Fold these 2 entries.
Entry 1:
Amino acid sequence: MSRMPRVSRGGVARTLTYLSLIAASVVVLLPLLVVLLTSLKSEKEMADDSGALQLPDDPLNFDNYVTAFQDGRMLSAFGNTAFILLFSVTGTVIIGSMAAYAIDRYTFRFRKLVVALFLVATLVPGVTTQVATFQIVDSFGMFDSRWAPIVLYMGTDIVSIYIFLQFVRSIPVSLDESARLDGANAFTIYRKIILPLLKPAIATVVIVKGITVYNDFYIPFLYMPSEDLGVISTSLFRFKGPFGAHWENISAGAVLVILPTLLVFLFLQRYIYNGFTRGATK
Amino acid sequence: MTDTTEKAARPKEAAVAGRPARSRAPRRLRLRRGLTPWLFLAAPLVLLITFTYAPVANMVAYSFTDWDGVSPELSWTGAGNYVELFTRPELFEVFFVSGYYLAASAVQIVVALYFATVLSFNVRFRNFFKGVLFFPYLINGVAIGFVFLYFFQDGGTLDSVLGLLGVHSDRAWLGTPVSANVSLAGVSVWRYLGLNFVLFLGAIQAVPGELYEAAELDGANRWHQFRYIIAPGIRPVLSLTVILSISGSLSAFEVPFIMTGGATGTETFVIQTVKLAFQFNKTGLASAAAVVLLLIILAVTWVQRRLVPDDKVDLV
């Protein structure tokens, strides 16, 4: 990380810089803070019409959270999300690292074609093909089951293959060769040498993929219409229905969904930045 | 896959597989060696073909039919869907909505570039500002939709803030097509700014620090440093961002779908396609629309690659 040297310039420029940063922070944080405030208000306070910026009377009023958690079926939503996360992230790691290992360590016929297939696939935005993908998923009988999003997340994640490819390339081939002399076969080399050395890449993929899956709305919305198959996005979306204009309840639901992301972000900040930089530029 | 079973039965020989010296090996060994990579590629390739290439092929095929997505019967209509798409203006109108998101992307890139430049110099609370700018990108789209529904509500956040500033606006922000689209595009900027910002920041920090020192000795000011060192240094990322922004603008879905459901003239291309396919059972027409969108995005990408060839793609 190369920090640039401080340039001594007029205080005006520096003040303007800070002002712009503060303004941006207000723009980012204010909508979120207001929702947090709203989530702590009672129905009566909301009816008072005292304005969105009014502080709640009782800052420890968690009634709305209870409502959102129970009526929004948040427990089962978190459960479904966790199930899908576990399988799709594990699958992505295994599939991505295997593909990267084969592509980098072997010369074989059609290798260029295979690489081109993966490369061209990044150009196809998932949203465009969903109508046709739907028919395929449906023909496998996976529609309205948790396996539909799982296979879609595993099958259409090409970015992770690139991330793994870059890392596999940095692992010296001599390690493979010495293991091979000791009698290790291709799978043993992959499992005992490549996979452990891929840990940083795995961390990146787990974080990037995990956040994407946790936040995705489109795929679960299309493929899992059943109430009891709600993930957090779709459950939150459906929660708004019966609660129409009860913003105190809806806000609590939104905060419940945002909170885990915030915690993960605070603990893993640096890895998250790196992950997204790596994931998007490749 | 027969390759797979045969290979699994004889793991010993697979060990010999490798890059070097393939010409000397006996033919049988060479064959097995050739099969090993396919063992690893089987699952990824099957998934890739099933969920990316097969849908694209099917989509193109459906686009020439009048299929409703359910009945076993479908008939070939030739280019009928495409003609309908281009002659019924209301079906094509959704592309104008993308204009709002495109304009927003331009704003977003400029603002992200500004903050990335500012925060790569020494600034107090640098990490705090970095985190604040990036965090929205990580938030669940549905939650963002609700946060901003409340934001734009009558008597919601925006009206209250304007009230504090002495402006008593009494308007439904999502009530007219123009203001609704501007509001929704603004939400997109709020949401995606952080990603661009972090990409730019990473690229700027990859520029060697000595360059700035040298420039300073030569008396270059901040703008010169930006113009002659930072801008050229981040060109590849910049061009990538432009591509992502264009294809993102064309395929805007979540924010408008969650916030307005496509009402008051905010229907985007993807919302329309989803409705055509899953509400009105016009799979054929929806597929034709999707093919058009895909072609536009591929064309944009192709143009970008021609214009900025230094974008290194060294996969092989």
Entry 2:
Amino acid sequence: MQETISFFSGFTINDLWFLGEAALRTLWISAVSISLGTVLGIFFGWLLYEGKLLGAMALAPVLDIFRSIPLIIQLVLFYNFAPIIGLDFGPFGSGVVVLTIYTASLVANVARGGIEAVGKPMRRAARSLGLSYWQDMRHVVLPIGGRAVFPSWVGVALGVMKDSALVSVLGYVELLKASQILITRTQEPFLILAIAGAFYFALSFPISRYAAQLEKRWAQ
Amino acid sequence: MFDYNFHWRPVMKSLPDLLEAGLLTLQVATLSMVIGIIIGLGLALIRLNWSGPAYWFATAWVELARNTPALFQLFFFGFGLGAFGLHLSPFTIVLAGLSFNCAGYLAENFRGGFQSIPNTQLRAARSLGMSSWQAYTRIIIPQVFRVVYHPLTNQLVWAVLMSSLGMLVGFRELSGETQFFASRTFRIFEYFAVTAIIYYVIVKVILAASRLLALRLFRY
């Protein structure tokens, strides 16, 4: 009689934990780079609005470059460029640096739009009431302009969260990389990709829905 | 610290191959845009006019395309369908993934475009004796086209940038070709730097061409 060797390597509950942990890592790298990129981007946006020569002549083309080159090329370039100048960031660090600059280049235009959204008369009124430039920025421009562009900021943030999947090319084990590792072992690509997709969907869909609702409510 | 030797010669030697691969990138991006426009238009019309299963199918398509990473979608067409014994070629994977993604994003653009045209125009056209087809092709679509023209251009740029993901599924468009050369010569930084420049030029050419075309199309 011939003995059949069954080699069981299916999808187990542990693998679900592995994917969940990887989803947390996706969230972590996105949260770090989105928050750093937003701060940097608001500063750049202010420069674009305020510094006429520096903003328009120098900063805008540089930011444009980061939006015109595929993120994956930027990641590979930076990952190979850092050791050349004697720095070693590792996959996570490189991913954060590239995603932060990418986010900043997108947020800069959003932030500039936010400042422009506040009417000149209102700014003048604030200044003539005795508010200093920074008080005007903090108490007038931030609440009003920020409200106008908040939905587009959410769009940028969600886009970066999804684009963080590309960090997997550097070897950082986030959600998509983890699903690839599991596919190699279990040979069940459909199931595992469906779970990974469900994770991404669960992260992105509620936020985008909420932002769309806010936009509708604030537009009234 | 800066004792890195840039080897431009191998890159310059394979530059014709890279440029040819750049053409392939443009082709696959354009083709997926054409497919995406056709499907996206269909999805938008279904979501506006129909209800029931067709509506839910179109909505599911749009939400899935918009709320999961493009790379995930490529992997799904590449590896996920393998579970059903459906093995696509790298070109088909990239084309299917990009078309799926573009259709989802364009459907929302078209929906916004259709909603910006008052319903009374369709009724006026119909009461003048036009058929539904005539009313759409002569009255509605030309106006919608004006609204979605710039989003369409942006989406084409995105398609070019997204096609760089082809390198991860073994498709030898610009990025894939670059990786092929880079991994043979180990001059990763040089190759990807040149590729980044090529991408930048492609994007700028597309934007300039679309601006010229807009001047020609929207003269009145």
